[in-house]
Amino acid sequence: GDSVTQMEGPVTLSEEAFLTINCTYTATGYPSLFWYVQYPGEGLQLLLKATKADDKGSNKGFEATYRKETTSFHLEKGSVQVSDSAVYFCALSTRGSQGNLIFGKGTKLSVKP
Amino acid sequence: EAGVAQSPRYKIIEKRQSVAFWCNPISGHATLYWYQQILGQGPKLLIQFQNNGVVDDSQLPKDRFSAERLKGVDSTLKIQPAKLEDSAVYLCASNPLGRNSGNTIYFGEGSWLTVV
Q: B107 and B23 in contact (C-beta within 8 Å)?
């Protein structure tokens, strides 16, 4: 079945460091891909998305490119801030799933000043 | 625009007791979801409604979990009797249509359940 695999955490970085969180997927057809973020004590918020191959989603300095050939959607940010500390979830949605999301296990990011 | 509203935010109950969670989706959103998020894991779909009809409840433990969306707006998720492994965050989410996989799903802040 459809699934999402993302890198294990936790990830600890210093402020202004470069961030990469790897995400790969398995899906039939052509899924839409998402990154959601969960700040401490809060609900999930959509960070960015891409709906077709080679699309780049971007928001708040974060980027991810939909790579069909490698079935990947890696999250990147050039310079992280303390306020980026959160849990990041990669997810996919397919037409066959009626639009609901299949999530990875999440990667906890801690940014130190 | 108001977001997805959930209550209560936190609940502690003893095993074998019952609990109910309420969700009011974003106005006009036809599709409503309940997800279960166990600590350290990604959310897992429990049930999906399209208006007041069930689209997918294949992962809902129907011996103890039930959910309804009688008027196609707000929804209630009930657990009876609760087990220790039901300790989790219960997330409600909504989506304008649900059939287009590119539509954004909006989540509430979640209801945190601890079963002792």
A: no
Instruction: Please tell me which residue of chain A has the smallest CA distance to B94.
Output: A100
Residues from chain A that touch B99, judged by Cβ atoms under 8 A, are 95, 98-99
| Lookup result for tokens 């992962």 | B59
Asked if pLDDT for residue B1 goes beyond 80, the answer is no
Give me the residue label for tokens 């019952």. Answer: B18
CB contact under 8 A, B98 and A101: no
Cβ separation of B105 and A43 shorter than 8 Å? no
Retrieve residue A99's tokens. 């639009």
Residue A9: count other Cβ atoms within 10 Å of its Cβ.
16
Top residue of B101, B103, B105, B112 to mutate, by most chain A CBs within 10 Å, is B101
Terminal Cα distance for chain B, rounded: 37
Buried b / exposed e across A56-87, counting CB within 10 Å, b at 16+?
ebeeeebbbbbeeeebbbbbebeebeeebbbb
Note the pLDDT tens digit of each residue in B26-65. Answer: 998 989 999 999 988 899 999 999 988 999 999 999 999 9
Q: Which of A35, A79, A37, A78 is CA-nearest to residue A57? A: A35
